[in-house]
Design goal:
histidine kinase; coiled coil; 779 residues; Beta-Lactamase; 5-stranded parallel β-sheet; 22 helices; 6-stranded antiparallel β-sheet; EC 2.7.13.3; phosphoprotein; alpha+beta
Length: 779
């Protein structure tokens, strides 16, 4: 009969240990068990069996009774006293004659054996017995495991019930403390309810809470519950740093002790032993790194970690509650103080709600300034601005609303506006507003403002502005008069200069013109007289070929032949010289145009050339000074209607300045003149454009901005009057309705561009006319 040794009771292969000293006994039973499917291990003595069991844990042991050194009974005694093997079933194996000895059986069974099998063995019986005891072993193990699980379940349930009870107490504690913190409006009452909840739900001896008086640096007892409920004892006030309470405050760290009777930091251990107090827990009450108080608890039993964790959390809530109560008390006091200040303030204090579009608060000063009571302002609601604000100032308010909508806390805005007094008058107000309350999206909800009556100041400002306007007008008139005087002065100076020049030119013309006319008029007669004398000499030579010695000597001394030959050259050079003198006089007269006092078509190129002719002595090279080269790019210009004498002054001033600028230029000195006629335009009259450019030292932008101002000059004292360019600008711009501009850079020369209408139609300049008439009369 074959029995499966692994499928019915055990989820694994069953291990059986055979202990017998005789091989003939071991082999048949070992083979039988192995064939059945059991894992069999063999030990040939009791000692070896015990040694093998140090490494092996079999499910069943078959033990021979009679063995040397250590028999089966002794081996079984060791097995049953060993914790590892005491529950393993042991079956004794003995000879058939031994089974009749009942005492031996009783001894084996009393030692803990479960059965006997006899030799020679009966396989089916042995296997049946083994199966039975293995089944019992499995049931025993299963029962033990169920008992273990049941015990663990009981322990887990007890722990869960204890944890649930503790959690319930903690939740109740949190609930009571939360209610105390949220419901009580007075600090000591709130803290007393907190200490009561701690004593009730944590089963402690008593609890106390102090708050910090930061001004005096002391802790003041606010609440006590449990064994002690009074707050006026020796610990009513504790200095920070004194006793265990002050120590916790100074260190700002919790202090925990579950053996306070032997804790050196507890000041009265005898009291602790007498009262049966075992543990102490003290916590600093801190909000955002600021100490607000201290909480301590005394208990008859040690504090668990869960309780300590709960206390640490509750400590934060109580600290926040203390701070909130203190802030609320301070806020209430501040509100009372601010209200008293606002009511006594001589300015309007208000809070405006931009969502509701009304003032939610206004002090009584509004009645003094605008005549309305705060209640009347409140009754106006969101119509307060439209009812009281000046219509012209509403845009100021709407713009102010747009600016303040996204303002930040601390931003201050100022505005001035007019509001209607109850009597109908308009009062000027100056307001300063700042953000008082914001919406959840960060935009401004309410603004706090202060307004003062500036109506008197506005009247003063208006009078001051009117006075300033009058004074400004006077100053502008004086400035215009001064400017006009400067122009007149410059014009008079230039006129006097030209008058002097006219007298000089007149004197020169008078002194040169008459002798020149005498010379020029007598040259013809001199030539005729000389021809007559020459003919007479030639006739004498022909009539008297042999002169006397005296005549011969004189002819030789005067070199008669050379005299006759050179006479013609002499007369010719005299004619050229007198023509040149005449041209100089004509150029001088042409430059001054003393005979042209009215608008008249003139040749601009001739005016330029005459001016250059007068200045030719400064253009020629002289000594170490190189020549100034004049480069002309004349365009085809028609006659130009203008004041020729005035334009000659402009050309003279520009050429004179260019020559002086070129005095500092060592080589390649040049003045370039370009003229052209502007392109015809249907909207603008045709103009003449004259460009005069030099390659001199140039000038800075700062100097260039002032060159047309009267009396501005960069020349040394005595070398310049600062009138030339100022008068030139006046002549071109005012007299000829044209333009004159300058472009220059240091080291790159200067260029002046003149642009005047080709045909000028304007009123006659009486000053120029009188001056020119005077100059003409000089001649």
């Amino acid at each position: 009969m074959t029995i499966n040794a692994t499928s019915q009771y055990f989820p694994r292969q069953v291990k059986i240990l055979l202990i017998d000293d005789r091989v003939e006994n071991l082999k048949p039973i070992s083979d039988c068990l192995q064939n059945t499917g059991y894992e069999v291990r063999i030990a040939k003595s009791g000692i070896k069996g015990l040694k093998l069991l140090e490494q092996l844990t079999p499910d069943l042991i078959i033990l021979d009774v009679i063995m040397p050194e250590m028999d089966g009974f002794e081996t079984c005694r060791h097995l049953k006293t060993w914790e590892k093997t005491k529950d393993i079933p042991v079956i004794f194996m003995t000879a058939a004659m031994d089974t009749s000895n009942s005492e031996a059986k009783v001894k084996g069974l009393s030692l803990g054996a479960v059965d006997y099998i006899t030799k020679p063995i009966q396989v089916d019986e042995v296997l049946a017995r083994i199966k039975t005891h293995l089944h019992l072993r499995f049931l025993t193990l299963q029962l033990q495991q169920q008992n273990i699980r049941l015990q663990q379940e009981i322990r887990d349930r007890q722990q869960a019930e204890a944890a649930l009870a503790a959690q319930t107490r903690r939740l109740a504690l949190r609930s009571d403390i939360g209610l105390a913190l949220s419901q009580e409006t007075e600090l000591s009452a709130m803290l007393f309810r907190c200490t009561q909840a701690l004593v009730e739900h944590l089963d402690i001896k008593f609890a106390q809470i102090w708050t910090l008086n930061s001004q005096d640096n002391i802790l003041e007892l606010q609440a006590s519950a449990g064994l002690y409920t009074h707050t006026d004892g020796t610990h009513a006030q504790v200095s920070v740093g004194d006793s265990i309470i002050g120590y916790i405050a100074s260190q700002r760290q919790p202090y925990l002790s579950n053996d306070i009777a032997n804790d050196p930091n507890i000041s009265d251990p005898e009291w602790a032993r007498r009262e049966g107090t075992v543990s102490f827990a003290g916590y600093p009450l801190i909000v955002e790194a600021e100490l607000v108080g201290v909480m301590v608890l005394f208990s008859r039993h040690p504090f668990s970690q869960t309780t300590l964790d709960t206390l640490a959390s509750i400590t934060n809530e109580i600290a926040v509650g203390i701070e909130r109560q203190q802030l609320e008390q301070a806020l209430q006091e501040s509100q009372r103080w601010l209200k008293a200040i606002n009511e006594a303030n001589p300015n309007i204090i208000y809070v405006h709600d931009w969502v509701e579009r009304r003032n939610v608060y206004t002090n009584r000063e509004i009645y003094e300034i605008l005549g309305y009571t705060p209640a009347e302002i409140q009754d106006m609601g969101n119509q307060v601005l439209s009812m009281l604000m000046h219509p012209d100032d509403l845009d100021i308010i709407w713009d102010h609303q747009r600016r303040i909508k996204y303002a930040q806390i601390g931003d201050v805005f100022e505005l001035e506006y007019r509001m209607r007094h109850k009597n109908g008058e308009w009062r000027w107000l100056f307001s300063q507003e700042t953000v008082f309350k914001q919406n959840t999206d960060g935009t401004t909800r309410q603004t706090l403002g202060a307004a003062i009556d500036i109506s008197d100041r506005k009247q003063i400002e208006l009078a001051l502005r009117q006075s300033e306007t009058r004074e400004r007008q006077k100053a502008q008139a004086l400035q215009a008069t001064l400017k006009k005087l400067k122009r007149t002065q410059a014009q008079l100076i230039q006129t006097e200069k030209m008058s002097s020049l006219g007298r000089i030119v007149g004197g020169i013309a008078h002194e040169i013109n008459n002798p020149a006319n005498f010379i020029y008029g007598n040259i013809t007669y001199a030539r005729a007289y000389f021809q007559d004398l020459l003919k007479l000499v030639q006739l004498y030579q022909k009539t008297y070929p042999e002169p006397t010695a005296e005549i011969h000597q004189l002819s030789k001394e005067i070199d008669l032949e050379f005299l006759v030959e050179d006479w013609h050259k002499l007369i010719q050079s005299m004619e050229i010289g007198i023509v040149r003198i005449e041209k100089i006089v004509r150029s001088l007269k042409s430059f001054a145009k003393l005979d042209e006092a009215h608008l008249k078509p003139v040749d601009i190129h001739e005016c330029i050339d005459n001016t250059l002719f007068i200045l030719q002595s400064r253009l020629r090279s002289e000594g170490n000074r190189p020549e100034i080269k004049v480069i002309k790019h004349y365009g085809q210009l028609p006659p130009v209607t203008c004041y020729a004498s005035l334009l000659n002054q402009v050309f003279f001033n520009l050429f004179d300045n260019a020559i002086e600028a070129l005095d500092y230029q060592p080589v390649t000195r040049s003045i370039t003149i370009k003229t052209e006629l502007s392109t015809p335009n249907s909207t603008l009259p045709q103009s003449i454009i004259i460009q005069i450019k030099d390659n001199g030292i140039g000038m800075s932008d700062k100097v260039r901005q002032h060159i047309f101002e009267p009396f501005f000059t960069t020349k040394p004292v005595g070398k310049g009057t600062g009138l030339g360019l100022a008068v030139s600008h006046q002549i071109v711009v005012e007299k000829h309705k044209g333009e004159i501009s300058c472009s220059s850079a240091l080291g790159q020369g200067s260029e002046f561009i003149i642009k005047i209408p080709r045909i000028l139609t304007t009123k006659k300049d009486t000053l120029v006319q009188s001056v020119n008439r005077h100059l003409i009369n000089t001649f």
